[in-house]
Amino acid sequence: MSIENISSNRSSGGWHKQYTHASRTVHCDMRFAIFLPPQASETNKVPVLYWLSGLTCSDENFMQKAGAHRIAAELGIAIVAPDTSPRGENIPDDPDGAYDFGIGAGFYVNATEAPWNRYYHMYDYVVKELPAVIEDHFPVSDIKAISGHSMGGHGALSIALKNSDLYRSVSAFSPIVNPVNVPWGQKALSNYLGEDKNAWREYDSCALIKKADTHLPMLIDQGDADQFLHEQLKPENLLQAAEEVGYPIELRMQEGYDHSYYFISSFIEDHVRFHAKHLK
User: Fold this and answer.
1) Three-state secondary structure of 110-149
2) What does the record give as the reaction this protein catalyses (predicted)?
């Protein structure tokens, strides 16, 4: 599969680059960003941290705002950030123009309901197609971890719990951990997957953690001043589910922090170092 470079910037001794490619999974041109640390070469393939962003975001938010390049360069880790949904003139969107569904809000599921089911296969894109593209075109290994924020935190946790053989570790900031029981998740899952809640649970981290047969290292940071904490995020539900089955997770409540990238940039070094321990 061919890819097209659309931007390239020197950063922290490495390179931040954006590419587009024609996706067979979501049937449109997709854009992703990659940070390659200075250690990456054909004779030294580096591990990859995949980052999944939240509602309204693209491949750009994390790369520009999180401040992760310096520590990733120090530790020799590549970072890959895909877009959050298919995009283009033919891509169906929320009919009311809302921010929490449709374009920019793919929720990292494989849609089964029309008209979403032709394009909105972000789960397969993140798990299968994108890593194949990355490993084919860049000096990286197949050793990988996954992380994300908000909707992307939901994506990172649910994908890791369903594919513990593919990832060494998982982390999240302010994740939607129980989408079947919160408004953001109920809207997205009912539209993408229909009304069968058994299908919804296949993407719900609180349900998935109870079925997990492998305990991946898991780190979660949540701000206690997050405006979405009590209605949309509910980290206590994941903590309770994990305790029921003895799944060890580290959930840190951070005093005074909200849902923004100020929060992410304050603790991103902890997360990259956490993953580096497991990517060796």
Assistant:
1) ECCCCCHHHCCEHHHHHHHHHHHHHHHHCCEEEEEEEEEE
2) S-formylglutathione + H2O = formate + glutathione + H(+)
Tens of pLDDT, residue by residue over 90-126, are 999 999 999 999 999 999 999 999 999 999 999 999 9
Tens of pLDDT, residue by residue over 197-226, are 999 999 999 999 999 999 999 999 999 999
| Structural domain boundaries, residue 245 | 3-279
Residue 41, judged by CB atoms within 10 A of its CB (0-12, 13-18, 19+), counts as exposed
Dig out the tokens for 157 from the structure: 């946790």
72 is written with which tokens?
Answer: 């990733």
The phi and psi torsions of 26 (rounded to 5 degrees) equal -110, 5
- What's the predicted TM-score (pTM) here? 0.98
β-bridge mates for residue 248, sequence order: none
Contacts of 278 (CB under 8 A, 6+ apart): 145, 168, 169, 217
| Segments in 35-169 forming alpha helices (H) | 60-65, 69-75, 122-124, 130-137, 151-162
Tell me the CATH number at 205.
Answer: 3.40.50.1820
Asked if the peptide bond before residue 115 counts as cis, ω within 30 degrees of 0, the response is yes
The number of distinct structural domains making up the chain is 1
Largest CA distance in the chain: 51
Nearest partner of 37 among 69, 73, 66, judged by Cα: 73
| Residues ≥6 apart with Cβ < 8 Å to 166 | 127, 144
**How many Cα atoms sit within 13 Å of 96 on the Cβ side?**
5
Give me the count of residues in the chain. Answer: 280
CA distance to 1, 19, 51, per residue, from 4 (Å)? 10, 5, 21
